[in-house]
Fold Glutaminyl-peptide cyclotransferase.
Amino acid sequence: MGNSALTRLLLGLVLVVVVFAALVGLGNQWRSQATGEAGSPLALPVGIVPGASTSPLALASPLPSPPVSPLPAAVSPLPTPAGAVSGAGTPVYGYRVVNVYPHDPNAFTQGLVFFDGFLYEGTGLRGRSSLRKVELESGQVLQQVDLPDQYFGEGIALWEDRIFQLTWQARVGFVYDRESFSLLEEFAYATEGWGLTQDGTHLIMSDGTANLYFLEPTTLEVVRQVEVRDGAQPVTRLNELEYVEGEIYANIWQTDRIARIDPASGQVVAWVDLAGLLPPADRGQPVDVLNGIAYDSEAKRLFVTGKLWPKLFEIELIPPG
Ligand SMILES: [Ca+2]
């Protein structure tokens, strides 16, 4: 054996060592990759989310939405507005603001009507209740009569040359001359008074329950009554009303929703969700709930506002989907 044989042996050993080292190194790299995702910062929150899904910290995590994370279930759904049950699959309309007008922020709106170019508004609260004629564009009160302090004014409706106004719990309504606002007479009814409108044949009244009452406009007798339901579920707290193209629109007290009701059956045929209508910037002073719907049947304009809201909106409804 000469030097060349020894050299070949050494080279062979070196080659074996190099190949072995290379294989070991590659193996470590594979293991590193295999454990990389499980051990990465991304993977850790996925593992702890099930126990922490209700934690605000977990919800606030800036994770790039891991595909199998249960986070989406934890952040949805938003609570359903109280009273706005639509388990029956009733369509919910959205809205688009067409025009914005000023509204007296001291008006606790309980009744709203559009007639012959002007708004008529009934306001509530004891000592602050009134009937007003209002210029749409400016919000300026053109004419006003105040109720005696003991009365809490509610819904209003126009009928021929008269204006009817309900009161909340006194079970007394007032009838005014439409032009002069002079008080013509009082009338009595058996329930609380909330909303009022008319369909060309009857006055239609709500009382805070799920019932609507149809009154003969001259005798003020209740001639019919219907319970409003969404599917099988009664819809209570019906508030301000407006008759719009064959349907009765009703504010649902303490919600951002309007029910569109079939007058014959009482069924809710659609909801309108007005959430977000009054911008946060307009909530600097105390404002109350959405209330007040008026319809200009000639120009087909729909107006809505709220109690003590500084603005009144003309809106268009947007069908779902
Ligand atoms: Ca109305």
Q: What stands out?
A: The pocket of calcium ion is lined by residues 112-113, 197, 240-242, 293-294 (CB under 6 Å). The longest strand covers residues 92-102. The first helix runs from residue 3 to 39. Residues 15-85 have pLDDT under 50 and may be disordered.
